[in-house]
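Q: Got a minute? One more chain.
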Amino acid sequence: MKEYIIETSRLTKKFGKRFAVADVNLQIPKGEIYGFLGPNGAGKTTTIRMLLGLAKPSLGTIQIFGKDLKKDKLAILRRVGSLVEYPSYYGHLTARENLEAVRRLLDVPKSRIDEVLSIVRLTKEANRPVKGFSLGMKQRLGIATALLGNPELLILDEPTNGLDPSGILEMRELIKSMPKQHGITILVSSHLLSEIDQMATRVGIISKGEMIFQDSIEELRKMSTSKMAIKVDDMEKAARVLLSTGTVSETVEDRLLFANASNNQVASMIAELVHNRISVYRVEEEKKSLEDIFLELTGGGSL
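A: Always. Here it is, folded:
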């Protein structure tokens, strides 16, 4: 039986007559990287704020580490680190000095500062004023701050927002390393679907305040049906030839698409095309991306 670090039941947040979050049942197993996806305004940040005790649910319950957040809020939050929106710093202070200010509040050993700087790969920049940091370095310092208390759960809201490609790569690799190297469970929300695809082990998709999918990323990918694409010199003739053999194709732009075609069927189609003197330029399998599936599930909701 799986141990869930976060488990909510009918979690709901209402503003006036509008439901920002409605009946959300999150289940985040220990040691997972949980990708929380949804269009803008879908309810991701509102959900995260409720998980961190920053917003009070209108209905439902939140259990973290098997305890009720309403009853054991302080004990739970001592074991949670978070980075919500852009972190704030004292720009004139160094990275080490900023971390020292937080360390005193948390009352953790001084040695922890060097540990978290090493985790986020900022050791060499520890004594530089933060005002000279790039956005990516500031985000990594934000994660270092979230890690100071040695949390078992890390909640990151849009950690790659505004980063350049190299910054996104650094952040992704950092997040991926933490469950194995430090035993941390991570909830990460993002509108960058390709990023979630590359680092999450479990995915939750929220749309208009409601959870419409929650399972492993492998199960999400299984929802897509792959198609075989064949590019030829004469599409109309190729379609007629294959139709005469009982094979129905779909014409999209410059290629013929075939759903659920086995290797033997593809080999037979190519042989038939070549026999009819039709040049075959390329044969490739096309699979739906995570973004394609997301758009189908959310009805084309924009990010």
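A: The longest strand covers residues 4-15.
Q: Perfect, thanks.
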